[in-house]
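so my prof wants the structure for this chain in the tokens format not the other one, which i didnt know existed until like an hour ago. anyway here's the sequence
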Amino acid sequence: MAKKLVGSMKLQIPAGKANPSPPVGPALGQRGINIMEFCKAFNAKTQEMEQGAPCPTIITYYQDKSFTMEIKTPPASYYLKKAAGMKNVGKRNRPRGAEKPGRETVASITPKQLREIAEAKMVDLTANDVEAAMKIILGSAKSMGIEVKG
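here's what i got, hopefully its the right format
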């Protein structure tokens, strides 16, 4: 007999750092998901990833309190900021993009770095080849005020 689907939710959790404290614990607890079981499974799945990289995660939960999770690659903005070597500024001490994208440039990356980011994000993008994926990532870079020099 198939499990009865109750719902799904999206969370962005740092790789290898899921713990029962907010925001993960309360979000899972109010839906009846075993918090410790989720944290152990998530941390085990993200063990090979770079620690602390934000991982968008889709959690599907069922009536029998079981769940499945789909962990995606970190956002393109995370890879772009890392490749550009942007320093931590602003609220919460995080790197920020340009205040006026298109008019100001805050950093630059090389075409080689752009290709590496596109290859890493390829599994989550709707692009058919790496060249199309590079165009998608280039659009994200431009909207952040990051230019590609090379």
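also thought this was worth mentioning. The chain has a mean pLDDT of 84.
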